[in-house]
Amino acid sequence: MSREAAAESEPPRDAPAPRPRLPASEWEHWDDERLLDLRLCDLDLSLSGGPIAERIAQLQAELEAAGLGFRPDFWLSDEWFTPDGVPGVAVPFYLAHARLQRLELTQMLEVEGGTPEWCLRILRHEAGHALDNAYRLRLRRRRQRLFGRSSVPYPESYAPKPYSKSYVAHLEAWYAQSHPDEDFAETFAVWLTPASDWRRRYAGWPALRKLEYVDELMRELAGQPPVVGSSRAVEPLSSLRRTLRTHYRRRRAHYRVEGVDSYDAELLRVFVGPTEASGPSAAAFLKRIRKDSRRLVRRFTGQRLYLIDQVLGDMIERCRELGLRLAVPEEQARLEFTVLLTVQTMSTLYSGRHRLPL
Fold this sequence. Notes:
Low-confidence stretches: 6-15, 351-358
Structural class: mainly alpha
Radius of gyration: 23 Å
Shape: globular
Number of helices: 14
Distance between the termini: 5 Å
Strand content: under 5%
Strand order of the largest sheet: 1-3
Helix content: 40-55%
Largest sheet: 2 strands, parallel
Oligomer: single chain
Mean pLDDT: 88
């Protein structure tokens, strides 16, 4: 996940002195509403200690085991990203404290990077971006031929080809297909992952050529100092003056679904109208299975829970408006609806009616 580096700016000479940051002991027991009124820069957080520090240390050990002398810098910000041209990685603030992870879960329905495995997958990916920047690999002709040019504009959304063998599969949603730089970072992450057995897994795939190139390139870089040797923190947490409430409102808007089509025809294949059966309300049934359904569909599609929940919520509302009811046993209705929700989620992806985190 790359981000253009923001220009550094000096605060005005007459700017008021910054407020002291609040340690976790001040806010860790606050309810969500009170916590949401805090500014990001008010949070006194650190990457030292705790699970995120352990994950970063594990990544550093993997880089060392791979023979690479490069070590990316890390700092806290509002989300995961590697600034363009900077050999360092921004880590989302919520990973620095369990209370903030609970808030993230409430606001976004999941915690991106919240498990050790998930966190390491993202860290390996971001390390690929940082290493690319550190050695200016995007300028190499062969890298450009295999992955494409970094100058290609980032899209707001993309329609991946799930069965394509020209790309590795590392992060969800076929992320390597979104942009040449993401393709490189994903390929590096697969190469770096211990015991990934990438030669066997990707045997016969066009993507294997990319992995073999990365393997050859990393052997060349082993022991070489980076061309870009130092990082500067871009948009560090201490510079972000918006409240947590504004932060989450913007994030939810970023993942919104636009121009939602009518689900009537599809819903009527699973449920029936109010005059055709006297079974339970379809809307009430879907509310009851909502959490389980969206997690199943997430596993099938790799899409964010927040996106899936929007599609599901629209379906529940339409069932209520139409007065739809169950006419088959609940287990059958659950299965049929899960298939429907999976199809509609993927349809939303292919239509480009939502944004992916690029």
